[in-house]
């Protein structure tokens, strides 16, 4: 399968990666969460070419992850702000931060620390089960087929689908 066809897979990871799965897009989102809103500020922060930045911003706007708002009508300049859909990517970004803080930092330590506004304490990303509050990890979760695959199987759209392939890599 070609990269530009990844959004057609029956897989939430593949479809999400089709929207945000390249390094520039994730860095643009990081900057959005850090308060960057203007084209020139993104370009300065990232050192990205105008063409590539414009392409990535357009893709994020088209997928409604960010919205484009005029801030200077005389020069036709825009700000880019996260939508609700974009804000909901925060846990994804924080999971990357947490992993990077553990496995990629140099001897000086983590580049940023995150303070929880409500209590004033430093936080680290983590996932808890919404039902029992126990920690969730790759070893405590069992994926099962959901309606998005089961309905396609029943309609005959996934004839060669291998039920067990989901489990082979995680067990």
Description of the structure:
- By secondary structure, the chain is mostly helical.
- It has a domain at 3-88: Winged helix-like DNA-binding domain superfamily/Winged helix DNA-binding domain (Arc Repressor Mutant, subunit A, Orthogonal Bundle).
- It is 42% helix and 10% strand.
- It is built from 8 helices and 4 strands.
- The chain has helices at 12-20, 23-33, 39-46, 50-62, 84-87, 90-103, 147-154, 165-168; strands spanning 66-72, 77-82, 114-115, 122-123.
- A two-stranded antiparallel ribbon has the order 1-2. Strands 3-4 form a two-stranded antiparallel sheet.
- Strand 1 and strand 2 (77-82) form a beta hairpin.
- The longest helix is centred in the middle third of the chain and has 14 residues, at 90-103.
- It starts with 11 loop residues before the first helix and ends with a helix.
Count of discrete alpha- or pi-helical segments spanning 4 or more residues: 8
Highest-level CATH class of the domain at 3-88: Mainly Alpha
How big a fraction of the residues is strand?
5-15%
Name the structural class.
Answer: mainly alpha
User: What is the residue-averaged pLDDT?
Assistant: 87
Rg over C-alpha atoms, rounded to the nearest angstrom: 20 Å
* Separation of the first and last Cα atoms: 25 Å
Low-confidence stretches: 164-171
The CATH homologous superfamily of the domain at 3-88 is termed: Winged helix-like DNA-binding domain superfamily/Winged helix DNA-binding domain
Order of helices and strands: HHHHEEHHEEHH
**Based on DSSP secondary structure assignment, what is the total number of beta strands?**
4
- Any idea what the shape is? globular
The largest sheet, given as strand count, sense and whether it forms a barrel, is: 2 strands, antiparallel
């Amino acid at each position: 399968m070609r990269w530009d066809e990844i959004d057609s897979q029956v897989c939430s990871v593949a479809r999400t990666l089709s929207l945000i799965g390249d390094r520039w897009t994730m860095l643009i989102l990081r900057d959005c969460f850090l308060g960057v809103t203007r084209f020139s500020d993104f370009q300065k922060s990232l050192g990205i070419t105008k063409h590539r930045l414009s392409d990535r911003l357009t893709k994020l706007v088209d997928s409604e992850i960010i919205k484009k708002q005029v801030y200077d009508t005389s020069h036709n300049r825009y700000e880019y702000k996260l939508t609700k859909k974009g804000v909901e990517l925060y846990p994804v970004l924080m999971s990357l931060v947490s992993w990077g803080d553990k496995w990629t930092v140099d001897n000086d330590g983590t580049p940023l620390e995150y303070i929880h506004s409500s209590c004033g304490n430093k936080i680290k990303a983590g996932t808890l089960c919404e039902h029992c509050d126990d920690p969730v990890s790759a070893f405590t979760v069992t994926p099962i087929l959901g309606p998005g695959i089961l309905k396609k199987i029943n309609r005959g759209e996934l004839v060669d689908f291998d039920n067990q392939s989901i489990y082979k890599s995680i067990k």
